[in-house]
Here is the input.
Amino acid sequence: MLYIVPTPIGNLEDITLRAIRILKEVDLIACEDTRTSKKLLHHYAINTPTISYHKFNESKRSQELIAKLKQGAKIAIISDAGTPGISDPSSYLIKEAIENNIDFDVLPGATATIPALILSGLNTENFTFCGFLPDKNKDKLTLFNHIKFHTNTLIFYVSPHSLEKTLTEFLDNFGDRKIAIMREISKMYQSVYRGTTSYFIANFAEITLKGEFVVVIEGYQEKTLSDDEILHQARRLTAAGKSASFIAKEMSKEYGLKKNKLYQLFIDNDIT
Here is the structure.
């Protein structure tokens, strides 16, 4: 049996009694970083042997763990913090377990996502977890274009060194929205910053750049414009030297309207 065991994301008390029992009962604990996990295991007097399992050895190590599981071993897998399988390498081993018909169980427990969503004060009825943004700009743009008109609240994990750049990318791709920035959830210096994307770009110095960040963004709010309002904006922009095709393209992005219909509206009203 393979056990997916969540560990605290900050406060060591945020672990379930069941998780402690499982970690004591299994034959082996696979850790994202054995040095990081040692503090938690020592705190709860868990003396089970550990082995490293991370993104740099997941392929080879998974085969070793699958072999042990087939021989009847009970193994738990934990990440440095939170629930394994979410934005960490554990998902690779889970897929291997499924392909090899090995039973596994997932324990409920700590995650930064839900506390951040509730702390944000934004809509909690429907939300989309986006995790960390892709490294490549092309992949980022693909993601932004896919979700920019989602009405769900959006949740991102962001590292402190990339936060300022990421906020600018959010403004460029989503427009100015309500936003909440959570730092060090469940830890001593937990902080919550609520406002708008543009505000925090202009007042970035207010944010303490230490620890782990979760950014929660308001979902797309449909902006309804009458034809008269659209034409008023279009005439103002043409007076500033913008072409009808350019205006149709930009208004399509901003309001989620069909570019061809906008352009035809401009033509019908002698806006070129």
The first helix runs from residue 17 to 25. Residues 92 and 197 are 35 Å apart (CA to CA). The beta strands are 2-4, 28-31, 50-52, 75-78, 104-106, 127-132, 153-158, 178-183, 191-196, 213-217.
